[in-house]
Design goal:
Chain lengths: 153, 153
């Protein structure tokens, strides 16, 4: 199954978070799971905050990239179109809100899940969470804005 | 001049953002500049979003680490104490809000500046910005919470 990010054209596939062409990046892959979107990511040992716990900046990055990818996918789905059809939808982050509910243990796989809260014009609001096993540790909201047509072109 | 992060004890110096002992991390260094705090950071070429612009997750990380370090420094300053005196103040992020006002050009040095908005009990609120030259590109707010005494000990 292709991930949302696999549909990005080459010139938009360099993102440190989700670009398949960024050799230093996270290579995030996001999929539909019913009405939710899901990304799975296992941090490296150096993605540390204090010993035993995941670095908050990584968690913010996961919320951000997961949510903008989800925004694009949601926009295509709202038009009943596949992600490889034109015109393309690409999103940037307008604002990012992250609440750290519990310290996130470093080691296990993290599961990031998103839900569409609103689609309005060029704006999509996504609520996302990070969980480890049964523990929901981070809750975030992203307001994603459709890129101007000349952005990164 | 010692940076705020240079005062962190060894067991708290592994953070990917600001830990001097994390060989993969950013090694952020934050200083007082009058009533403001300042961190300078030059992203690498791979810290890319779309070509020419900085990855938003890095910008969120810079706001986060800069602000929690600023929170600790502000707490010491509010007690007229040096950062190497006891009891130590260490902060974690309770919540992080980031607004991306302009795309941040990739290449030049970024300057992150913070101001204390509130100190109340174990909570410090810091407002921080990211600028490139004269352009203010990102505005953020962090609610930093003093770590429980047994956290990361």
């Amino acid at each position: 199954m292709k991930a949302f990010q696999d549909y990005y054209p080459e010139h938009l596939a360099h993102c440190y978070g989700c670009g398949r062409l960024n050799e230093h990046g996270y290579h995030l892959k996001t999929y539909w799971d019913g009405e939710e979107t899901v990304t799975r990511f296992t941090p490296s040992a150096f993605h540390i905050a204090v010993p035993g716990f995941v670095y908050g900046g990584l968690l913010a990055s996961l919320i951000d990239c997961h949510s903008t990818a989800s925004a694009a996918a949601a926009m295509y789905r709202s038009e009943l179109r596949e992600m490889d059809t034109s015109p393309p939808f690409r999103f940037v982050t307008g604002s990012l809100q992250v609440r750290y509910l519990l310290a996130t243990p470093l080691g296990p796989e993290l599961v990031i899940r998103g839900r569409v809260q609103e689609i309005k014009g060029r704006k999509v609001v996504i609520e996302s969470t990070v969980s480890v096993g049964d523990a929901l540790t981070v809750r975030g909201e992203v307001v994603a804005i459709q890129m101007p047509d000349d952005f990164g072109a």
